[in-house]
Amino acid sequence: MTGGAPLIGIVGSGIAGLRAANALLKCKVDARIVIFGDEDHRTYNRPGLTKKRYPLSDPTEPTDATDSLETTIAEDLKVNGVENTALTWRLDTRVETADLRDKVLRLSTGETFAYDSLVIAAGVRPRTSVEGDNDCELHTHRTLRGLDDAQYIHNELQTSRKVTIVGAGFIACELASLAKEYGCEVVMLETLRHGPFESILGRRISVALGRWVTQNGVTFLTGDSAKELLCDRAAVPARDTNDPDAPDPRPSPDRSLFIEAIGSVPNVEWLHGNGLDLSDGVRVDEYMRVSGFSDVFAAGDIARYPDPWRTANLTRMEFWKNAIDTGDLAGRSVASSLGYDSRTSRIGYFPSTATEFFGLRIQIAGNPKTSDSMEIVRGDLDRPDHGVLVKFLREDVLVGAAYLDKGARFNSLYIELLKSLKAH
Amino acid sequence: MKIFVDRSKCQNHGLCAISAPANFELDTDGELQYHESFDEEHVDDIEDAIDSCPLQAILLSRDAA
After folding, report:
1. Residue A153: what are its φ and ψ, rounded to 5°?
2. pTM for this one?
């Protein structure tokens, strides 16, 4: 520090980064706060990217249809706090490397940035089976993480006839539902499991959800039949090899959208060389502090912290509320490290999330993954749309709950169940 | 302060009803119902509900009643 207000660098312009910044502002920290984001957008509501269908652009409108859909989505997903003039945004700027001992970031623009405190909120990126975003003769290949991806995909789904989706997690299922609403023929490929959310909710529920997806008109394939339809992008379209700058050849009329939604990878590469534990995200303590560096913190999807639910375990969660809570806490911890009186308390996050596809709402709370048995409290897995309430137990202790329903028949019962789950 | 839910954004995910059951609930059809006004003792719950919403559909409006 060269005197004056400390300089705080926040790497990542998602909600965790923004909430860390807001927490610092709330603590009235006299600091300059700079947020780096490799997307060209300030923070937006990421879960919203796949949660809702947007109306078809009116073809009689004189405006460019793509532009208006893009604007509609961006407007719809705005979050509070991004207009705060106390924050400096460095968008479309990637942090290439970090030297945590000298406290310097090297940026994609060639500049360096010397910080006094650093918040790592760089998030995750989609896992892909093949490097790059190259299209093949048969498919336009895409993944979905950012606003640009979502704008492209919504636009494509509005006009496509067919889409193939690999994976059966939250994004895959929400995309399949959206694609059907937009009128596409949808094929889902799940090569490893029996159905949606198997790694969280177990095989029985996963099989029931697979049936639900099928009943709603999706061709849902698993195992070998799914593997057969995977694409290794070997069928490359003919292009002008003499001119590397030549644009992609025009897609053939039957080329279709192929989306991989098979999980994610933490963005940690830029942190290599600092001796951090980067085995699965960035390891932090229960105050979001990175061990060994009193001025480095992490939050959001990338932060791997002691599980408040199971001592001795570490957890890393990719949920909106987790990013908010860990972001807030990281900001308060930075304030505290700078000598400000801030209300820091170890992370006490209660995991709770929800999704909806084909009209079926699925709420999940606690940590069903760690259970050794499940018990159906209400309903019948053959009719998830009529409501199914499930308890997850570990050594007969409640560790999680899930509730599937088209209406909300057992919602108050679910909330009662969560009260006892929270209390444990 | 009053609660306002933007119905064009809300998709009835019901996370607010978990955070702040005194103000939000899903009816048997799964539609969100809520009370606009809240007691000071519930303000933390309301903030938790606002944060939890995956559609960011809940706002506090400062308009006097």
Report:
1. -70, -40
2. 0.92
